[in-house]
Amino acid sequence: MSHGTLPNTSELLCPHSAWLTLVTLALLPVGAWAQETVAHPRAVMPAQIYAPPPVRSTLDIDPNATLAPMPDLGVDWPDMDAPDTMAPLMAEVPDAQAPVATSEVDTPTVTVDAAATPADPPPEQDVEFDAGAERRYRVTLAGLENISDTVFATRFDELSVLKQGDGKPANLAQINRRIKEDTALLDRLMRAKGYYDARIRGSVSAPTAGDQRLQVSLDVVPGPLYVLASVDLEGLQDTGPKEPVLRDAFSVKVGDPIDADKIVGAQAALTAALGNNGFPFAKVEEPVVRVDHEADKGDLDLIIATGGYRTFGRIVLPDDDLFSARHVQRIARFRPGDTYTASDVEDLRRALVATGLVSSVKLTPKDAGDGEHVDLAVDVTAAPPRTIAGEIGYGTGEGYRIEASWQHRNFFPPEGALTVRGVAGTQEQTGSVTYRRNNFRKRDQVLTGLLSVSNINRNAFDARTVQLSGTLERQTNIIFQKKWVWSVGGELVASDERDSFSQLRGGRRTFFIGALPTGLTYDGSDDLLNPTTGFRLGGRLSPELSFQNSTFGYIRAQIDGSIYQPMSDRITLAGRARLGTIFGSTVSRIAPSRRFYAGGGGSVRGYGYQAIGPRDANNDPIGGKSLAEFSLEARVRFGNFGVVPFVDAGNISTAALPRFNDLRIGAGVGVRYYSNFGPIRIDVGTPINPQRGDSKIAVYVSLGQAF
To answer: Could you give the dihedral angle defined by the CA atoms of residues 31, 34, 35 and 39, in that order, rounded to the nearest 10 degrees?
Structure first.
């Protein structure tokens, strides 16, 4: 075992040190330990363990012994006035630390050993080689077949000066200097993997037949792999009953290789585990390894200062302009007295960002002073509270549609948003005001109130409607996609409508409707806007009362399901089914705006919006009491773009139960552009078995997948 003094970890390790420290060297140039700097902005060196073999004496010399007489060499003393015939030879002696060029002739047939010294005999030469001529070269590594992995190869490629100049002209002196630097680089990389006795030989060879480039080779003999003889986690015993869990978090064990990456990774995992098990002030020192070169082993020491076990205390804010401490506590998934966990603190930070009211959040644990609790200081920077948004769309059968909205996200603090929205389109004109309070009384719970006035003129019906509604729901979003989503609410609707049945009775009819809609959905997919695996299943139920001439009631019910199956990294098969029914009334008595319809971009593509189903004498759809829809598509992705062939089918029936004997089928292909906020889709479909008056082509443009 070698002995020495622990060096300062902020400096390069002394080659005579025996106490060794893992030092993470980010963006470190290969020549950092020489006098020349080379920039490598993307590369990251692993933590280093430097352990030089011990210097052993090979001579026993008695300093008191009498010197032997100088032998007679039998050579006359030289004439000091004679010309210096040795000077040219002395000038050619190369640096003992540099690769040695042994020829100055034109053709490169000589091999240069980067590990050679001036005492080595020069290699044999067959032809002349000009050492000053610039030639392109090719780099090869040998001896790393069982050692190099993706990380090792990437580090070498990005830090190697030989790789940087690969394919560019260079003279022999330049190549030799690069071999020297890459030899040192490989030595550091090998030590980081646990090979402390690796031997590396660099050489330059003549081009092979049919190739004009020099062959630069780095041959590595790894030597023995050093392993850990002991692992000492000093201070972990102070964690009490948490010790077994924390010890398991440090994955490096006795007998493992002295791999710097794995040791630093285990250190990070232990630090995270301490933070998630009630130790917010824990500190884990840098790992220290003591290497025994004779036994090819090392001892790992890690010092842990736990800082004491803590539970959550109060939430503290400097002001309550955006949130009160009470509201932040409502959003948090922890309560005072719960074990401190860093993951819960990070979850709260993301939840505060998701409100849209802050641009940055800083959460800092503060000692409460009682030795038991830790308070959480919340420091937020407000984001602009107002948003103006717009949307333009087009759909065959729907025409053009322009939507604009203005929103103040904290009009009624905390998180009480006010939104004013307007729609101008070929078939729709709408104005609405929405009140929405996020995290209402509970995390992820939303209270919504809506007042809207609309004029909708479609082929199926014409409706002038005033609606007042309120909903309490648990919603999903892109940041927090939830498994279970539910909603309960109430609606009051006054609508003056026209359809084929009202025309038979003298014109328009006025409906007053009260409804109690509810919904429940399970989302087992992997993405909200672009799912590639999993499934979704949801249902909606809405008991309704209609006041028109006489009072009658009915129930609207609908089930939606979709499944996503990856076939490869680029291809996903997706399927969808939708079934709906209305119990308790005839089609003619139900308001046209409350019936089922099919056809369009979110339904059966290839057909116009609401165009499928029974029609009146004017060939206009009348809607129905039951619905059946099915879709199947293959989503093929190429980078940021994709192609989606699809087949859809669906039908509307005036009976209470869906019928499948007269399904309308549409087929086509879509194009997807996968943006940062979700896929943008353009679908082009055609009806396979159209009804009279159906267009041959239908086009749909929207955000997100069809389902």
So the answer is: 10
Longest dimension (CA), the chain: 141
Residue 645 in domain: yes
CA–CA gap between residue 360 and residue 379 (Å, rounded): 8
Rounded Cα distance between 1 and 426, Å, is 86
Residue at 55 is within a domain:
no
Q: Does residue 192 lie in a domain region?
A: yes
pLDDT of residue 26: 30
531 prior amide bond cis, ω within 30: no
Q: Could you tell me which of 308, 290, 298 has the C-alpha nearest to residue 235?
A: 308
Sign of the torsion angle spanned by Cα atoms 296, 301, 302, 308: positive
504 and 610 in a common domain? yes
Give the domain extent around 374. 311-380
Residue ending a domain, among 330, 362, 380, is 380
Count Cβ atoms below 10 Å from residue 105 Cβ, excluding itself.
Answer: 14
Burial 518-555 (b: 16+ CB within 10 A, else e): ebebebebebbebbbeeebebebebbbebebeeeeebe
Q: What does the angle CA 668 – CA 674 – CA 678 come to, to the nearest 5 degrees?
A: 100
Please give the distance of CA 247 from its chain centroid, rounded to a whole number.
Answer: 29
Domain end position, chosen among 238, 272, 305: 305
Residues 562 and 673 in one domain: yes
Same domain, yes or no: 202 and 274: no
pLDDT value of position 9: 32
10 Å CB burial of residue 481 (0-12, 13-18, 19+) is middle
Question: CATH number, domain at 418?
Answer: 2.40.160.50
CB neighbour list of residue 285: distance below 8 Å, 6 or more residues apart: 302, 303, 304, 305
Residue 350's Cβ-count burial label (10 Å; 0-12, 13-18, 19+) is exposed
Q: Tokens representing 569? A: 């990294």
* Cα dist from 100 to 103, 111, 187, 323, whole Å: 9, 10, 19, 71
Give the span between the Cα atoms of 630 and 573, in whole angstroms.
Answer: 14
526 & 638 share domain: yes
> CB-based contacts of 381: which residues, under 8 Å, 6+ apart?
358, 359, 360, 361
What's the whole-number average pLDDT of the chain? 82
For residue 322, CA distances in Å to 26, 327, 359, 441 come to 39, 10, 12, 16
The secondary element (H helix, E strand) that includes residue 146 is none
Other CB atoms within 10 Å distance of the CB of residue 85 = 8
Same domain, 457 and 546: yes
* 106/250 same-domain check: no
pLDDT on residue 505: 64
Give residue 167's pLDDT.
Answer: 79
Look at residues 334, 362, 332, 255 and name the one whose alpha carbon lies nearest to residue 299: 255
Residues of the chain with pLDDT under 50: 1-44, 48-128
- One domain for residues 152 and 165: yes
Distance of CA 623 to the CA centre of its chain: 45
One-letter amino acid of 214:
L
Name the domain count of the chain.
Answer: 4
- Residue 79 burial (CB count, 10 A): 7
Same domain for 351 and 369?
Answer: yes
